[in-house]
């Protein structure tokens, strides 16, 4: 490779590294319940579709959901006594600058020694604005259920 080609390749790599960032974070979230619908299944179980609002606060300023408002929808399967059997959903996060992302979540564990309430995973599908190209995901732990929502913690790895 000649000197000008080497210079160009070095400059391109530096430009890419200056625009891309990766990180790891820990944080907490709160949810506030909105409208929900419930359908009874023939075997006594129930399916609940819940719309809710979420706020997240991270220990890293560049965390893709740090300080974001999220509009979410979840699908929960409950046993006849109302205990959660499974859950999954998606969220659309945004800030006042017009940046945001779309991400999925699911319940991976319920009522175990390791996870007394509900624990799960999440991942980014797409981003826009400053979050265009966001990838990654993480894990979450719901620690409290309130009359109008929930509180929990999360850990994530992300790149953009």
Question: Can you describe this structure?
Answer:
This protein is mainly beta and 160 residues long. It has a single domain (23-159), classed as Beta Barrel (AOC barrel-like). It contains 1 helix and 8 strands. The chain has an 8-stranded antiparallel β-barrel. Strand 1 (22-40) and strand 2 form a beta hairpin. The radius of gyration is 19 Å and the shape is globular. The model is unreliable at 4-18 (pLDDT under 50).
Quote the distance from N terminus to C terminus.
30 Å
Structural class: mainly beta
SSE ordering: HEEEEEEEE
Label the CATH architecture.
Answer: Beta Barrel
Number of strands: 8
What form results from the Cα inertia axes?
Answer: globular
Domain tally: 1
The CATH H-level homologous superfamily: SO1590-like
If you average the pLDDT, what whole number results?
Answer: 90
**Lateral strand order in the biggest sheet:** 1-2-3-4-5-6-7-8
What Rg is obtained from the alpha carbons, in whole angstroms? 19 Å
User: Main β-sheet, in a few words?
Assistant: 8 strands, antiparallel, barrel
CATH-derived topology: AOC barrel-like
Helix content: 10-25%
CATH class designation:
Mainly Beta
Tally of separate helices: 1
Strand content: over 45%
Query: pLDDT below 50 for ≥5 consecutive residues: which ranges?
Result: 4-18
């Amino acid at each position: 490779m000649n000197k000008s080609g080497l210079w160009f390749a070095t400059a391109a790599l530096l430009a890419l590294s200056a625009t891309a960032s990766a990180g790891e974070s820990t944080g907490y979230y709160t949810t506030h319940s909105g409208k929900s619908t419930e359908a009874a299944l023939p075997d006594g179980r129930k399916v609940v579709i819940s719309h809710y609002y979420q706020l997240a606060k991270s220990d890293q300023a560049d965390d893709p959901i740090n300080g974001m408002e999220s509009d979410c929808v979840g699908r929960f399967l409950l046993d006849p006594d109302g205990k959660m059997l499974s859950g999954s959903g998606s969220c659309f996060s945004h800030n006042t600058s017009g940046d945001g992302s779309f991400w999925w979540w699911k319940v991976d564990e319920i009522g175990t020694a390791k996870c007394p309430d509900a624990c799960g995973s999440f991942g980014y599908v797409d981003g826009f604005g400053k979050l265009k190209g966001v990838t990654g995901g993480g894990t979450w732990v719901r620690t409290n259920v309130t009359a109008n929502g929930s509180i929990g913690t999360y850990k994530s790895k992300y790149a953009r």
